[in-house]
# Entry
Amino acid sequence: MLKKPKKVREVYFDHAATTYLKPEVLKSMEPYFINEYGNPSSLYKKGRIASNAINNSRKKIAELFGGLPENIIFTGSGTESDNLAIFGTCFKYPDKKHIITTKIEHHAVLYVIEELEKQGWEVTYLDVDKNGLVDVKELVKNIKKETVLISVMHANNEMGVIEPIEEIGRKILKYRKENNTEFPYFHTDACQSAGYLKLDVEKMHVDLMTINGAKIYGPKGTGMLYVRRGVKIKPQILGGAQEKKLRAGTENVAGIVGMTKAFELVQENKEKESDRLRNLSKYLWEEVQKQIPQVKLNGPEIGSDKRLPNNVNITFESVEGEAMLLYLDEYGIMCSTGSACTSANLEPSHVLRAMGLSYEYAHGSLRFSLGLKNTKADVDYMMEWLPDIIAQLREMSSANFSVGKHVKYK
# Structure
């Protein structure tokens, strides 16, 4: 039996799922909850104050990644931004019926593209290598005159692998010039990278880019879509003229102001915080290797420039991810598993499977995504309990296997 700690402490290692609000962000939002509650579309003073807050936010965000204020469309989430980018482009140009994406995209991209596939669009799903990297040459080889959109995420939410977006952007630009066309458009989901990487839309050569406030210590229910000048998309929410008639509905002023403040803060501190988290990630992985046998790091090497600095994804052989997650939760430790826990059939991560991991390996993975409040003390606390948890779960798994109760993988 595992011993219980005298005092359970809360350790949050799931920043890739969502983040807590920074105090400075909350402070920036407070006036727009109670005092400055006007509708930005109203002409009187309170409405103008709200409208100015949105316009100032648009300017600040545009400055941070080299765009223009009119390029920014505020939305209700990263998922909504992905939907608007993909549906909006494809429905605007229904005569072009080909899309290119990767097998490891977030479901906010994949499910949208799968829906388009049902409606008659042809889709090329690119393979990735063992580290999750897309082959740029293969991507270019699949572009054809019917290709309307290419969507490749900037950094993967499960593995932290950073895709070669700038190289892809240059190749797409070259294709357009050589073929005298404005297509295909290039979209990237930058929700995971916004807190750690510089987002320069000119260097990246992206036409559409998604950001989510909840991933950068901003408010939940906020998102943004960058739309390059000249790129036309079809609105998906109708009912008003807000956001250049591309996203109807009264704007979430407090949320927009908060997301903008959060984005400013993470971009200002990204180098220093990335270095700190890179060292902490290395420490976590080293401690796991020292104390637990039969473990495997998934994705690029920790500290590599091809991996987000806060991501550590580990497979623990002969253990179910869901079981590890629930045991760790008893000790106040929060992370995520490589399996889709909400799925009825508990299918393992599509990302890990696309990288070539077996069902068994994919089912035994945990993702630790570190953040602002994490320290070595958090890692040390987890390591007081994780080795014994793994040992006990392996013993239970071995016992079940011996009596024929083991899980059967497809």
Q: What stands out?
A: The chain has two domains: 11-16+271-402, 23-268. Residues 18 and 215 are 5 Å apart (CA to CA). Residues 376-402 form the longest helix (27 residues).
